[in-house]
Amino acid sequence: LKYFIIILISTILGLYTFVNTSTGKQFLRDLASQKLTQKSGLNVIVESIDLAQYPVIVANMNIEGKAKLTLTGFLTSSSLDMDYTLISECIETEVCSIDDQININGHVNGPYSRVAITGEGTALDGNVTYKLIKYTDKVEDLSLIMRDVNSTKLFTLMGHEELIKGRADIDVNFEFMEENDRKGSFVYNVNDSNLSGLALDLHAEVNIDGLMHQFHSNVTSPYLNLYIFDGQYDQGKKLARADYILDVKDLSYLETLLGYKYLGPFYSTGEMIFNNHFMVTGRSETYGGKLNYFLEKDGLFVDLHNVSFIRFMSIFTLPHMLKSDVNVNIYYKF
Length: 334
Hints:
This protein is of the alpha+beta class and about 325 residues long. It is built from five helices and 19 strands. It has a 19-stranded antiparallel beta sheet.
């Protein structure tokens, strides 16, 4: 009994030290910071922990010296049920650092082996809403909705240069995401955007099942329409292909994009391929006869068969000299 009383008193004194003294609180903050840093791979500093109403706690954290995270709610050894607020003026990853105003409020609850997470707020100059279920080894029922976000910041965050500048809407839905497997889809829309000074809209959809991606996309503007369909991408082999239809109303409007002022309409169909590098094949009857072309990284091959020379040369601001049909092979090296 004497030893039991001694152990009990020591335990009470120890708990009092940890909960109510500056030394104990600092020890808890340092321990929590160390554990969270190890688990997340981020530099996490726990600035304060209020345990006065335990199991209700309030914790304030600094993440990578950039973001402030506040957690409020119930926390036990097996589960949590907490509100959170994330505030930052910067997004920093291994590939980029972006100045951005982030303000997100959300909720996490459930056993640690199955945590439900929701959140909504502002990021990437737009509005963000998400929900998901996080298991120890996978994510299920992920829904991410982004509205009116900055497409340049989004592509920078993903480690890519943006092709089309504008405000983007994104809808992401995944049944599950594991380390080596995933199933879901996303839809990407950019309206009133800009490509080398050309105003256009972009709509793209991708369905993902494991390593296989199926996709299609539409690019529309007052001057051209580009339809990409039956797209397939094998992530494991890094091979992609898609069919396309290109309908240009007047090539002269594409001067900033093409680097030269060509004239007249142009319509073609063909195939896009990626296999170590990008390639495009196509065929057109815009100028009478048949025009076949092959575009790859080093140059452009063009095969004209019974093509009206005068109609073909009408794309250039040059005098027309011949009126006959021509058969000719052309190669332009970049």
